[in-house]
Amino acid sequence: TPAPTPAPPRDRGGLLGRLTGRAAPETVVRRTLDDDMLERIEELLITSDMGVETAARVAANMAEGRFGRKFSTEELKAVMAGEIARIMEPVAKPMPLYAKRPQVVLVVGVNGSGKTTTIGKLASQFRAAGKSVVIAAGDTFRAAAVEQLQIWGDRAGVPVMTAPEGSDPASLAFDAMARAEAEGADLLMIDTAGRLQNRQDLMEELAKIVRVIRKKDPEAPHNTILVLDATTGQNALSQVEIFRKIADVTGLVMTKLDGTAKGGVLVALADRFGLPIHAIGVGEQIDDLSPFDPEDFAKALTG
Ligand code: GDP
């Protein structure tokens, strides 16, 4: 078989290229890292969706021990990437797998964030790792969502449990739990509704799902993954705040990082919440879910 063609490097429009201009290759221009330069760095970081607070922190970290010294653009890029990677390293953690059977994974997030797609991708990865998986289509009010999940289940080779449209998601979750137990499945992934328009309803619905599965396993759900869409930029921060009030979020997946989103919001998320980032979505296909790599991410972000 022919060797796979390597994917072209992603261009996120390198931040620092715009800051200092590209010097001709033979002349390396060095500029002093002073207050003026730091202010411009901060502004550029803000344009990457990092938010004011986190941008200020990254700029301050860059200045520490380096203020007043001269740097080329390439050197500054490396410094910036290093400081961003340092913030991201503690949160780069794949979803933990437990010996517990079934390990219950509740997946939450607003509609359109990529929940269904991410569940399909994760199920496929777990299957490839030799795990048996059951999916429950817990967004029983959206027929299209259930259909989509069935398609993803077929692709991943994983059974998808559904319930009639409009029926109680908690009772589906209970049945799915019973089936996963009976089959000795390693993982049960439960999709949930993402209607933030009626937060009270959603909160009660999620609480009821949790209550019902805890009748079978007091420690479930073992993971509650919040799926966020990178193209919503700073909005992701308020989504984390809202969902943390509704559910006990244990980790994040950020989708759509293959698009134009610069992803700086991930740095803000790490800085503010410190929640593990389990994976990132980099496309619409089943294999387009990557582990989160802080160094690659920081390099891609700084350009
Ligand atoms: P849900 O409503 O949260 O279940 O969202 P879906 O899983 O249906 O995804 C919404 C749309 O986003 C679909 O068109 C997906 O193909 C697309 N999508 C999901 N994840 C990614 C990703 O990582 N990259 C890209 N480019 N598109 C994605």
Biggest sheet, spatial arrangement of strands: 5-4-6-3-7-8-9-10
Number of helices: 11
- CA-based shape: elongated
User: Which ligands are bound?
Assistant: guanosine-5'-diphosphate
Q: What fraction, in percent, of the residue positions are helical?
A: 40-55%
* Strand segment count: 10
Notes on the protein architecture:
The protein is of the alpha/beta class. 46% of the residues lie in helices and 14% in strands. The chain has helices at 15-20, 35-47, 52-63, 73-88, 115-128, 143-156, 169-183, 199-216, 235-246, 265-273, 294-302, and strands spanning 30-32, 70-72, 103-108, 133-136, 160-161, 187-191, 223-229, 251-255, 277-281, 289-290. The protein has an 8-stranded mixed beta sheet, sandwiched between helices. The chain has a two-stranded antiparallel sheet with strand order 1-2. The two termini are 33 Å apart.
Short description, anyone?
With 303 residues, the chain is α/β, with parallel strands linked by helices. Helix content is 46%, strand content 14%.
Key descriptive features of the protein:
EC 3.6.5.4; 10 strands; two-stranded antiparallel ribbon; Signal recognition particle receptor FtsY; eight-stranded mixed β-sheet; cytoplasm; nucleotide-binding; about 300 residues; alpha/beta; binds guanosine-5'-diphosphate; single chain; 11 helices
Lay out the secondary structure.
Blueprint: H1 15-20, E1 30-32, H2 35-47, H3 52-63, E2 70-72, H4 73-88, E3 103-108, H5 115-128, E4 133-136, H6 143-156, E5 160-161, H7 169-183, E6 187-191, H8 199-216, E7 223-229, H9 235-246, E8 251-255, H10 265-273, E9 277-281, E10 289-290, H11 294-302
Parallel strand pairs: 3-6, 3-7, 4-5, 4-6, 7-8, 8-9
Antiparallel strand pairs: 1-2, 9-10
Helix pairs in contact: 2-3, 3-4, 4-11, 5-6, 7-8
